[in-house]
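Hello again,

I reread your note about wanting to compare the complex against the isolated chains. To keep things tidy I'm splitting this into two emails, and this first one only covers the full assembly. Below are the input lines as submitted, including protein chains and any nucleic acid or small-molecule components. They are followed by the predicted structure of everything together. The single-chain runs will come separately.
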Amino acid sequence: MELRLIEKSDHDFFVQNLIHHYQVEGVKRKESAFIYGLIKSPEELCLDFDCTLIPPKKYFLPPKEALFQFASGPAPEATPVIADDPFILFGVHPYDLKAIHQMDRIFASGVPDPHYLKRREAALIIGVDPIRVAPRAFWADMGAATISNGFDLMFTDIGESFIVETGSSKGEALLTQYGKCRPATKEEARERVSVRSRVSHACKKRGIAFPRREIPTLLKHSWDKIFWEEWADKCLSCGTCNLVCPTCYCFDVKDDMNLDLIHGERMRRWDGCLLQDFAKVATGENFRETRASRYRHRFFRKGLYLFGLLDDVACVGCGRCASGCLPDIADPVNVFNKLREDEK
Ligand code: SF4
Ligand code: SF4
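Full-complex prediction:
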C-alpha cells in the first residue's frame, strides 16, 4: 500500500478542485458543535472535529424520502423515486465508516433496498482519522479505532501535512486529478502510526470492561434483570438515542395523498424503537408498551439480535447516544458494565 502526502498548504487547492467538480458534503462547525452539510469553500471544511451531532447515515438513509409516486383510480400507476446524483462525503471517522459498512450489509440483505444502495454507489467517501476524542466516545473498544476499507481516500493529520491512503480506483483518480501530492517517506508513514496509536490510547480512557464479543452472552443472561425497570424509569421516550445513532436504521412508511385524492407519494421516515408508538399495530396493540421494554429492546437489538447477521455488535462506540440523552441512561458503556458487574 503506497501512502501519499499532501501538505496542508496544498489541501485547500484539493478541496477547491473537488468543490468545482462535485457536490461536496463534509463536516462544518455550527457554534460549538460539528455537523455534516454542503461545503461551499475549503475554509468551511473541518477535519479536526471530535464527533458530529448527527452521523453521515442521513446521506444514504435520509430522515424523510419519497420511495415512489403513485396515481390511484381507474389507471393506477407507480413510479419509483431513486436519487443517485454523485457526491463526495468528506470527513468520515473510522467508527462511522464501520457503521456505514454494517448498514450496507443490512440494506443489501433479504430484499435489497435500491434507494439506499443507489445512494451508496453514488458516493465517494473520504475518511479522516480522528485527532481528538469526544468525551463519551469508546470506539477503540468497539474495533473501530482504525479501518482498512470502506473508503475511497483516508486522510491522517500528522501536523503540517496529511498522509493519504487510497482505498479504491475512484479515490486514486480523485487524488491524481485534483491533488498535489507525493509519496510519503517511511518516517512520515511511521508518524501516521504514532498519531493513530496516541488517539486510540486517549479513547481507551473509558470503555467496556470486557471484550465486546461477550456482549451477546451477557445480554442472554440479562433479560429478566430489574436493572431495565430501574434505569428506564428516567427515560423520556424522546428517541434521541435512536436519532443520533449511526447504526439505527428503523423507519416508518406512510402515504402522503394530494388534495385530488388520486396522486400521492409513499414516504419513508426515520423511526425509533424508544418512541412510544414504535411497536403499536393497527388494532391498537403495542408490543412494547412500557419504557423498560423499549429501553431493553434497544440494547438487545444492538448487542444480540444483529450480532447474528453482522458477526459483531451493532454499536461502533461513537458516544452520540450518551451525549444526547438528558437523563444520561443511554450510554452503552455504563449499561454493559453495570450488567457485567451485577453478574458477579
Ligand atoms: S434513553 Fe435517553 S435518549 Fe433514549 S429515549 Fe430515553 S431519554 Fe431519550
Ligand atoms: S449505540 Fe450509541 S455509542 Fe453505539 S453506535 Fe449508537 S449512538 Fe454510537
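For quick reference: The longest helix spans residues 186-203.

B.
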